[in-house]
């Protein structure tokens, strides 16, 4: 779902860009975003978009999550993402698959190593999803 942004008149400079404030509630959290019309693309980090300029900073009001732009660089050529072999799933199935991968990290080709580099060492994992409205 798209965010239902409320754009305010408040402005400040972030990373050298004049930014404007917007707020929304999304998936159980309240967010504050700062966007710049100087870069006229309706994009931002993670799932945030839909404002009349690039989102250069967005965070939840409890400050558990915070995304901020540090630099913009022009790419030398187009960036193409290879999606061969990917499957479409809904959010509920994606979260279940992620939980299963955490419980069994050696299933399939996903092999992770702990800090010491040993693949089968026990290690505690903390799992907290940003979307609070998904059960």
Could you explain the architecture of this structure?
The chain has 135 residues and is mainly beta. The chain is 10% helix and 27% strand. The protein contains 1 helix and 5 strands. It has a 5-stranded antiparallel β-sheet with strand order 1-2-3-4-5, with no helix packed on it. The chain is globular. The two termini are 16 Å apart. Mean pLDDT is 82; it is low at 109-118 and 123-127.
Topology:
Layout lengths: L5 E9 L2 E10 L2 E8 L17 E7 L5 E3 L22 H13 L32
Antiparallel strand pairs: 1-2, 2-3, 3-4, 4-5
List the main descriptive attributes of the protein structure presented here.
135 residues; mainly beta; 5-stranded antiparallel sheet; 1 helix; 5 strands; 10% helix; 27% strand; globular
In short, what is this structure?
With 135 residues, the protein is mainly beta.
Mean model confidence by pLDDT: 82
Biggest sheet architecture: 5 strands, antiparallel
Q: Helix share of residues? A: under 10%
Which secondary-structure class do the elements indicate? Answer: mainly beta
The ordered string of helix (H) and strand (E) elements is EEEEEH
Low-confidence stretches are 109-118, 123-127
From the spread of the alpha carbons, the general shape counts as: globular
From the alpha carbons, calculate the radius of gyration and give it in angstroms: 19 Å
Counting DSSP E segments of at least 2 residues, the number of strands comes to 5
Distance between the termini: 16 Å
Beta-strand portion reads 25-35%
With strands numbered from the N-terminus, the spatial order across the biggest sheet is: 1-2-3-4-5
């Amino acid at each position: 779902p798209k965010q239902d942004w409320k754009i305010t008149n408040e402005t400040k400079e972030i990373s050298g860009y004049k930014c404007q404030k917007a707020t929304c509630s999304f998936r159980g959290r309240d967010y504050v975003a700062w966007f710049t019309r100087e870069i006229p693309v309706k994009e931002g980090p993670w799932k945030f978009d839909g404002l009349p300029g690039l989102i250069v900073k967005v965070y939840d009001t409890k400050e558990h999550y915070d995304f901020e732009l540090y630099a913009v660089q022009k790419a030398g050529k187009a960036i193409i993402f290879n999606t061969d072999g990917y499957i479409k799933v809904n959010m509920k199935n994606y979260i279940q698959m992620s939980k299963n991968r955490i419980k069994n990290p050696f299933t399939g080709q996903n092999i992770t190593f702990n800090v010491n580099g040993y693949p089968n060492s026990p290690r505690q994992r903390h799992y907290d999803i940003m979307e609070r409205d998904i059960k």
